[in-house]
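Teaching soon. Invent one.


***
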Amino acid sequence: MSTTTTWQSGSGTAIDDATLDRIDKWWRAANYLSVGQIYLLDNPLLREPLTRDHVKPRLLGHWGTTPGLNFLYAHLNRAIAERSQSTIYVTGPGHGGPGLVASAYLDGTYSETYSDITEDEEGLRRLFKQFSFPGGIPSHVAPETPGSIHEGGELGYALSHAYGAAFDNPDLLVAAVVGDGEAETGPLATSWHSNKFVNPAQDGVVLPILHLNGYKIANPTVLDRISDDELRALMVGYGHKPFFFEGGYDQDEPIAEVHRRFAAMLDEVLDEIAAIKARAAQGDVSRPQWPMIVFRTPKGWTGPDYIDGKKTTGSWRAHQVPLANARDTAEHLEVLEQWLASYRVAELFDATGALDPDIRALAPTGDLRMSANPVANGGILLRDLRLPDFRDFAVDVPTPGGSISEAPRVLGEYLTEVIRRNPDNFRIFGPDETASNRLQAVYGVTDKQWNADFESPEVDEHLARAGRVMEMLSEHQCQGWLEGYLLTGRHGLFTSYEAFIHIVDSMFNQHAKWLKVTNDIPWRRPIASLNYLLSSHVWRQDHNGFSHQDPGFIDHVVNKKAEVVRVYLPPDANTLLSTYDHCLRSRQYVNVVVSGKQPAPNFLTMDQAVAHCTRGLGIWEWAGSEAPDEEPDVVLAAAGDVPTLEVLAAVDILRRELPQLKVRVVNVVDLMRLQDAREHPHGLTDAEFDTIFTADRPIVFAYHGYPWLIHRLTYRRNGHANLHVRGYKEEGTTTTPFDMVMLNDLDRFHLVIDVIDHVHWLRASQAGLRQRMVDARLEARQYTREHGEDLPSVRDWVWPDAQDLSSSEQVDATVFTGGDNE
């Protein structure tokens, strides 16, 4: 880990008039290009009087936040060029898309990236036409925008992404603009605390810029309508040193003076940051009071003051498209023409439509351009993880069910070595649950990064100013940090309770959409996959109960494009190791892995686990009772660790009670294998599906989540009418593990009943066995009510081949005997 820094202080001299003029011209050019993108279809340089045919038939986009973003971009350009400071620009107000496209065009990156958007009049026409136009680009700071890692389609995550980008990037400045509407969201309000997790030596710097333009779509913003003293107290309370700036409200102040004041403030802020970094390089990694800027400007700055006699600039009316009828009314067309002309385009572009070279000179060159910084195209910088051989961490499985492990605890041993080998580009993120989810082995090589105050080492276990584990009790922050970390070229995983991963549903949506779009953008290089580990799952919430019982995140994930999402349900420790090694090697996916953290049997040796995970599903011949050359009478399938246990226990009963019944046992670890090959890259062909599940025999499927998802994935299959799925059906409480599966009819006795009910020749002949299964359920239920634990014959059941092993041989030495969520 490097602690050197290239952070430079400024020259200490005032900004000269020529530079101020260059900044203003850049700002005017960016504003002109932004307005042009929203409105113009043709006549990009106003060579002729504006007509309705020059205006787009559908006016889309957002103007209100854009001029402020353009102002900041222009000033950052100056500072970056003078200081050679690697910087990326994260804009929480994603609606400012036209401004970021404009600046990328002005510094040359856009034309380098898209060769048809040339630096001439025709290029400007294409630039304008494509914006929010069919076949063109979106209105947000989308993946198509060079320099973007944050689309902003949903508000609230600017700072989370910014800090994720800064972790392990010691020489990076992230200028993170927070919209004042965005500042009202819960995730953004929480993300101010991210500064307590920054190590000033090993990490980069986030410069938050709170952009107060006063209004949302139709209402004022909270932070703009409180006093400066109150706002200052809020930001100081968050741990920042706020710098306040106001511009654009005093009509008598020359614009050059507005630029001069901001340039001086920005230099002061950056000098203070450079001083903090210099102290850190000398060993002072205590938490500083990081600077931030409160930037107050009118909404829609430089736009028309009034439209149709109503206040526009400086009001909510400037939020989106102030002149919605510019094409259809002569009055609005005239206002638009005057608005565009106010930027004096002839002073900005030459006769061919090329930008004045003196204006271009404001921007830094090469990779120092914010729109060209390789950090914002993280796949360029991505290095493969140096991974150990996961087979070295295998648990011994002398016979199916012959050992017991907590699967995530075994994974934790593997992750310990991953961290050891990758000390600067791999982190684990989670909301206070790393140990609860049994990954605490990693604390043998790392600590939890923490830069707030410290108390006694007796209670502050594994806290340090530098560490590979990031814990904050906010799923939003963990998700946002990890996304920012991945988007800038690193690797990681997010561990969480299954029920509460839903908190980030919409964040997952945005990231999955980003991956889907970037798959079709050649210059966007693939990034490491977003990996989830959900270890406290629906079936083992023994004291948390109903509130913690929800497996629906899988359903939500499966809604996304097939080329992006993967869902894995490893049934034991060795399959979890094989699965997660694959996930850490993958690119451009969202991998959801669900694995219970409670002690559970291991069924597959490592070689068997690797083969099983490679197939994604398979027939467990050792568990079934079918002869090699015969078709089964029934298929019992399972996906998930608890369903697998219940299926095997049901098969044990069937083998003893109905030896003539030919049972096939199928286990599914890769859920997407069930889908049609035409719908998902991992899907089985119909012929493959029929070979495994049969086309005409009953299938009793025990599934980890909501049962209708299995029907949805298999509805086209020949044997779908024969498919009977058991899973979670929203029945739960604080109860024993077996009572929990009985509440949802997923238990072994009910699975035997399902076999009798669906194998037609058993219905009448096995009425007695069916009745005994009903009675067994009643007995198990009654035992829990009397004793508060599961019936020993159920609780202590093991696969028959493992019954001869002593308990010491069965139980892995790593079994955990205490802690949260038992």
